[in-house]
Amino acid sequence: NLLISTTVEYNVFARAAFPFFTSLQNNKSFPASVLSLEIDVQEPIFGSATLNKISSLVTNDQPLILKGTPIYKSFLNIKYSIPAEKAKEILIKSGAGLYTNTIIYTITPQ
User: 3-state class of 28 per DSSP?
Assistant: First the structure.
């Protein structure tokens, strides 16, 4: 969950801190770009905001929410997924283990 509370219009961007998810257990990695994310909309709290799906996470800021309207202490559910074709192509080759990366969310006023 991501908590947003703002009195002004805003944008939310997301990016990976590193280009790869890495494992300290087996010295393997896979690209951050296999991960996609989007806002899981449960209720209409966004008004006329544009909600974008990020289909390939990279290290550059990508818009997740554009033209968000003022909002008070609302939790955003973020859905993370890896498409089956990418899982088969990349993840299976990387092997089982714990892989880490950091996703950075930036909230800016419009």
Answer: coil
* The pLDDT value given to residue 43: 60
Write down how long the chain is: 110
CA distance 97 to 109: 39
Q: Which two tokens stand for residue 12?
A: 């939310």
Task: Read off the amino acid at residue 57.
Answer: L
State phi, psi for 28 to the nearest 5 degrees: -110, 165
Q: Other CB atoms closer than 10 Å to residue 19's CB: what's the count?
A: 14
In 3D space, the residue among 11, 83, 5 whose CA is nearest the CA of residue 51 turns out to be: 11
pTM beyond cutoff 0.85: yes
Residue of 76, 79, 38 whose CA lies nearest to 55: 38
Task: Report strand pairing: 2-6 vs 71-76.
Answer: antiparallel
Query: Average pLDDT of the chain?
Result: 90
Amino acid at site 74 = S
Q: Which of 61, 14, 12 is nearest to 37 (CA)?
A: 14
